[in-house]
From TrEMBL:
The organism of origin for this protein: Cardiocondyla obscurior
Bilayer topology annotation: Multi-pass membrane protein
GO biological process: signal transduction
Membrane-spanning parts: 27-49, 80-108, 158-186, 198-215
Protein name: Odorant receptor 4-like
InterPro entries reported in the protein's UniProt record: 7tm6_olfct_rcpt
Keyword annotations of the record: Cell membrane, Membrane, Olfaction, Receptor, Sensory transduction, Transducer, Transmembrane, Transmembrane helix
Highest taxon of the lineage: Eukaryota
Length: 289
């Protein structure tokens, strides 16, 4: 990414790279904020509740089910445990949010570089009374394409098995949270349970969607490279110069993708597969209830 920023020598490159960076910043802030709000909304009721520590007949309400090896006999001890639980959940939420945000940042940066490359392809053929070296420009475009391919491979290597973990865990989480929401209907504290579960259900769906959309977006952007090369005014070039575009078109036919553990491509179709699998497992759980 540093090399790409250093290579921004014209106004188009600078503007496009800055635009993607600002977009990434907004999305990252929104995702982390949403994770934080979800955890705060889930924990705030228990933290602010007035609990009688002296009442040993009832189990003390905790944010998570814990087997604490000490006896909680004072309010301060109880509050410290709640605060530690809350901070732990906040850190986990931030870790998940930052992981998702970083993926989107990398994908948006790649998309920005593809947009720059497309602009260079559109401007490849010189206008009337304009002189420039076609071979030099084509060489710059090919090197940019190679950088984009290498960068996308690095993203794939970094996130492939993270995506596999997310794919499996999100399927289980969506199924489990859906089961909690359905079974909570009709219970005395149904509204509270549904709201708590629904917030995490939304976040889990968002995580799955982010990974799948990132793969779909990268794939669609890579297709635009070949289309841009074909749609430029190659017919005004010499045959020796236009042949160079064939290499770009041929290479762009092998689309850039993100995979789930090197097994399947991440796409919106993958997201529907997650939802279908979760729905099927939920039906089984409800039937076994």
């Amino acid at each position: 990414m540093t090399e790409d920023w250093n290579d921004c020598t014209d106004s188009i490159s600078i503007r496009e790279t800055e635009r993607k960076a600002k977009m990434s910043d907004r999305i990252a802030n929104a995702i982390v904020t949403l994770h934080t709000m979800t955890i705060v909304a889930y924990c705030i009721g228990i933290i602010l509740a007035d609990v009688d520590i002296a009442n040993t007949t009832e189990e003390l309400p905790l944010i998570n089910k814990l087997d604490i090896p000490i006896n909680i006999t004072t309010q301060s001890t109880y509050r410290i445990i709640l605060i530690v639980e809350f901070l732990f959940m906040i850190l986990c939420g931030w870790a998940a949010g930052i992981t998702n945000s970083f993926l989107l940042t990398l994908i948006l940066h790649t998309a920005g570089q593809i947009e720059i490359m497309r602009y260079w392809l559109v401007q490849l053929v010189p206008r009337k009374n304009e002189t420039k070296s076609i071979a030099k420009t084509t060489n710059k475009i090919i090197r940019k394409h190679q950088k984009i391919i290498g960068f996308s491979k690095n993203i794939e290597n970094l996130y492939s098995y993270i995506a596999l973990l997310q794919f499996v865990s999100n399927t289980i989480m969506i199924c489990s949270l859906g089961f909690l929401i359905v079974t909570a209907i009709g219970s005395p504290n149904a509204l509270e349970q549904i709201l708590k579960s629904f917030l995490f259900y939304t976040i889990t769906n968002l995580e799955a969607f982010i990974f799948c959309y990132a793969g779909e977006y990268l794939n669609n952007k890579s297709k635009e490279i070949g289309a841009a090369a074909y749609n430029c005014a190659w017919y005004d070039l010499k045959s020796t110069e236009s042949r160079l575009l064939l290499f770009i078109i041929l290479r762009s036919q092998k689309q850039l993708t993100l995979t789930v553990g090197k097994m399947m491509d991440l796409s919106l179709q993958s997201f529907t597969s997650i939802m279908n699998a979760s729905g099927s497992y939920l039906s089984v759980l409800l039937a076994m209830q």
